[in-house]
Structures are given as C-alpha cells and as structure tokens.
C-alpha cells in the first residue's frame, strides 16, 4: 500500500507536469503575440499555483524559481516590463528549468543547480541586463528534450459513480453464482465461481479506493470560515485541525460539508463565550475549537470540539417535558446522553430558552438527517462550563454496506450494521413489563423491546400494552442504537452477516420511509433494508 507521502507526491507531480506543459504552450503564444493578455494571465496564475504547491510539499527550490518567474510576469502584466529582448530567453530558460526540476522530483533525483538562472531573474527584477553568454551552449545541450506524460489522470466523479454502480451489479451476480454453484455441486463451476468472487472483490475494493479522498480537502476550507465567523461574533478563536490525511469516500465528504459547516459556525456563535465572559469564568480569553478525524474499524469519526459553555442538561430535560416529548416521570429516569438526544428532534432546537441557556441546538435536526442519509450516527458529549464535542460517525463508503440478515414471517430482511449494537437470544423470564412496554436488561441498561412484526403491521394506532404471556420460547432480538436510544427488535430468526449493495426503492414504494432501500441476495430474492432511524421514530410515536 502506498504511503500518504507517496500519494501526495504523485498528485503534486500530476499537477506540476500539467502546469509545466501549459506554461510551455502559453509562453510560445506570448512570443508570437506579446500583447496576448490571456496567455500572460495564465502564465502568472500557473506560476503562482506551482509556487504554492511546491512550498507546501517542501520543494522550496521549485517554489523559489516559480516565485521569481511570477514576479516578472507580474511586471509584464502591469506594463512595467515588456516581453522583448533579453527577457524572452531568460523566461524560456526558466520554464525549461522548472520542467527539469519537476522531472527530478518524479525520479527521486537531485534537483539541478539554478544559481545562474536565479541571478538572471534577479537582474530582470532590478531592471538590469541578464548574463546570456552561456544561453546558446545550454540550448545546444537541450536539443525535442525529454517529453513526459503524467502517471495520473483526472476522472469526473460521475464516472466513478457509474463504475461503482456496475461493480454493485457484479457483486449481486457474484453472490448468485456462488449460491448456484453450491446447489449444483459441479467442481468446475465451483472453481470458476470462486475465481469470479476473488476478482469481483478485488475490483470492488479498487473502485472504492479510487473514490477515497483525504478529509483535509474539506478541513482546509475551515480556517477562513472560523476567522470570518469569529470576527462577526467578536470572539477570539484558535482552530486546531488533526487527521487531515484520513481517507473517506468523496461523496460522503460532499454530503457532510453543510453539516460540518453548521456545527463549526454553531460552536463559535453559541458554544464559545466572548473573551470577557471567558475571563469572568476563569478561562483564557481565547476560545479553542478542534476539528479532527480518525479511523475506527470500518468507520471514520469526524469531531467538532469546543471548550465553551457546554449544554445545560437540566434545561434540555425541562424543555423536553414542556414540549410533550417525554413525561416528567420518564424524563427523570433518563441519563444525560438520552436527554441531549432531544436536541436532535425536529423543531426542538428552535426553542429560545434552550438556545440561550445551552448555547446549542439550532438546526441540529437538519444535521442529524444528513448523517442519517449516509447510515451514520451523530453523537454529542458535553460538560457544563467546559465545552461540547459533536462526533460524526461515518462509513468510509456508501456503495457497499455491512448488514445483518434476519427472517420475519418467512421473508428475509437486512438491517445495517452501523446501527446494530448486538444480537441476543433471551427466555421470557428475562423480560419485565413497565408502563405497557416490554423491557429487558442489556449491558446494565434497561432497553425497551418490541416485536418487529407488531411494529410493522400495527396500522395507524398506538401499540397495545405488552404482555409477557405474548412470549413463548427463546426470543431472537436485534439491539439497535439511534440517537443514543437503544431499542430491541424481536425477529423470527437470525440468518447471517454479509456485505450488501443497497439500491433505492422504485416508485411508489420509495414513499415508505421504514425501508432504506432493497438488495438482491445470492438466491435471487429481493430483500428489504430496514431504516433504523425511521423504525425508532415509529416506535416512539406508537408506544403506549
């Protein structure tokens, strides 16, 4: 596997060679027509970009040459110099030298000496005549020069999306062929099917790898955002960014852009105090905001952390009762995580009191929906007076998802592993009925349990109160987690865990929000994929 440094160098080489080829073309155009302002503007822009990229990568000699060339093209653009006489050969020589330096980087060779070129560029900037006595000799030694093409190509995202869709179809057929080969029992077919499976797997991961980009491509846009928002809010904010090299699917990064922007703005506008407020609270006047990313198993965790005023859980608890989201008795028994989860309820965050007291919440339901659409999770942790951390748990890819298959009423269903905590089999004596709800103890927590059959087929009315007499024999239960709420779903039978390719549901079934899509199993059977957030909301709406 390539190192991050090697990947970045290849990207630099691809762009640098593209810049060099464009420079060579535009300077020839400028020689034919010294009044060609478009060619001059492009030369100035290309030199500026090459300078920035080279310095960022640590190739300072290339950056210095590009900087001096940029200065001279700027003087020509501002009509302080003209592209005539001795200026012409020096600038041509400069572009040739840039090409040699870029090739040297690509081949891990020592960069060529540029002392004489830099001296001539300095002379031009000062209005002095350059030393051209060795130019003719250099031209003779450089007589059609090595021509190179970049090892990298640029591909439009839509083409990668199409390729990923084709791979998804291949994965479905792979599973069907593997199933058929086992049923038929032909050794030759089994061998061919196994080979197809290996090729399909390798192709799948290769395409997924091609779609990965560094989180830093998004993070790099936030220093300016933080500066602008902090200035508007009259706050002093220091931004720290870590984990910029963590890789994630480009489409996922695009989807979370607005959510991350909102969380950062909210952290500055509402989470962090003014310098005066911080000093009065015994804190440094400057607030601290951290934007970080890290890999955790098959997920990527993106965090927005501030050291501001934090969330007032008591105020959120009181407002949840006032809004009718929970009874006073129920609210008293909720832990802090469960209370903070109310901030993600639609409209809840618009309440003025919660915004003023907790400094949090405006639009968090919209952020949550964006994360839900990816099959991810949004978590919040906070200490009053010390700060708040929002964690976005994201899959590295949205094309192929891990899922748990189970059976219900002789039909197969799939549930994303992202929202699956665990699976358990319990006897009836492990359950209690509290307030009309079936409850069981899972990992030192009381978890409500409901029959998935009843939940799906109950109609528009509330669920009838649960009875322990409804349970006969061992119960297979999938424990799901959404918005810091755990829920047990009773199913008929566990099947297996496998990767699936989720396809959107066609009209008019796409209006049923309990299902996030469909997948095709190896047997050829269509399998509905449950939407855990929608199921959780349905249970909360129907509970007795």
Automatic annotation (TrEMBL):
Protein's UniProt keywords contain Methyltransferase: no
SUPFAM superfamilies: ATPase domain of HSP90 chaperone/DNA topoisomerase II/histidine kinase, CheW-like, Histidine-containing phosphotransfer domain, HPT domain, Homodimeric domain of signal transducing histidine kinase
EC number: 2.7.13.3
GO terms, biological process: chemotaxis
Record-listed Phosphohistidine modification sites: 48
SMART domains per record: CheW, H-kinase_dim, HATPase_c, HPT
Keyword terms, alphabetized: ATP-binding, Chemotaxis, Kinase, Nucleotide-binding, Phosphoprotein, Transferase, Two-component regulatory system
Superkingdom of this protein's organism: Bacteria
Sequence ranges assigned to domain HPt in this UniProt record: 1-105
Gene Ontology, cellular component aspect: cytoplasm
Described function: Involved in the transmission of sensory signals from the chemoreceptors to the flagellar motors. CheA is autophosphorylated; it can transfer its phosphate group to either CheB or CheY.
Descriptive protein name: Chemotaxis protein CheA
Naturally occurring in which organism (per UniProt): Hymenobacter rubripertinctus
Organismal lineage: Bacteria, Pseudomonadati, Bacteroidota, Cytophagia, Cytophagales
């Amino acid at each position: 596997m390539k190192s991050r440094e090697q990947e970045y160098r290849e990207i630099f080489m691809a762009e640098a060679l593209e810049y060099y080829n464009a420079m060579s073309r535009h300077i020839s155009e400028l020689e034919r027509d010294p009044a060609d302002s478009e060619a001059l503007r492009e030369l100035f822009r290309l030199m500026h970009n090459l300078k920035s990229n080279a310095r960022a990568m640590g190739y300072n000699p290339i950056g210095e040459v590009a900087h001096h060339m940029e200065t001279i093209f700027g003087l020509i653009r501002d009509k302080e110099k003209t592209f005539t006489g001795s200026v012409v050969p020096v600038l041509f020589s400069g572009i040739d030298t840039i090409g040699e330096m870029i090739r040297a980087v690509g081949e891990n060779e020592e960069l060529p000496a540029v002392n004489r070129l830099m001296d001539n560029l300095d002379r031009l900037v000062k209005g002095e005549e350059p030393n051209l006595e060795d130019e003719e000799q250099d031209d003779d030694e450089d007589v059609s020069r090595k021509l190179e093409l970049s090892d990298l190509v640029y591909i439009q995202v839509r083409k990668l999306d199409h390729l990923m869709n084709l791979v998804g179809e291949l994965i479905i057929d792979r599973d069907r062929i593997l199933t058929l080969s086992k049923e038929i029992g032909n050794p030759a077919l089994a061998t061919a099917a196994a080979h197809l499976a290996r090729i399909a797997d390798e192709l799948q991961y290769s395409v997924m790898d091609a779609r990965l980009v560094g989180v830093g491509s998004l993070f790099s846009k936030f220093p300016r955002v933080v500066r602008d928002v902090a200035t508007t809010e009259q706050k002093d904010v220091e931004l720290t960014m870590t984990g910029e090299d963590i890789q994630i699917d480009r489409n996922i990064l695009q989807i979370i852009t607005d959510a991350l922007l909102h969380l950062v703005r909210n952290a500055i506008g509402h989470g962090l105090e003014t310098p005066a407020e911080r000093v009065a609270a015994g804190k440094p006047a400057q607030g601290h905001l951290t934007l970080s990313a890290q890999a955790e198993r098959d997920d990527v965790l993106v965090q927005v952390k501030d050291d501001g005023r934090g969330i007032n859980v008591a105020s959120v608890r009181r407002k949840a009762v006032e809004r009718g989201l929970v009874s006073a008795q129920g609210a008293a028994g909720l832990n802090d995580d469960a209370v903070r989860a109310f901030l993600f309820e639609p409209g809840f965050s618009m309440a003025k009191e919660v915004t003023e007291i907790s400094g949090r919440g405006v639009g968090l339901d919209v952020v949550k929906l964006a994360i839900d659409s990816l099959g991810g999770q949004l978590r919040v942790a906070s200490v009053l007076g010390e700060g708040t951390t929002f964690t976005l748990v994201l899959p590295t890819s949205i094309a192929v998802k891990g899922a748990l298959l189970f059976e219900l009423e002789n039909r197969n269903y799939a549930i994303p592993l992202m929202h699956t905590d665990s699976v358990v089999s319990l006897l009836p004596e492990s359950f209690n009925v509290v307030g009309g709800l079936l409850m069981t103890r899972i990992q030192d927590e009381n978890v409500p349990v409901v029959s998935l059959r009843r939940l799906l087929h109950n109609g528009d009315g509330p669920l009838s109160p649960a009875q322990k007499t409804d349970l006969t024999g061992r119960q297979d239960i999938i424990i799901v987690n959404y918005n810091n709420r755990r829920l047990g779903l009773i199913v008929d039978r566990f099947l297996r865990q496998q990767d699936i390719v989720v396809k959107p549901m066609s009209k008019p079934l796409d209006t049923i929000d309990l299902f996030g899509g469909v997948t095709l199993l190896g047997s050829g059977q269509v399998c509905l994929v449950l939407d855990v957030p929608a199921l959780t909301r349905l249970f909360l709406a129907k509970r007795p």
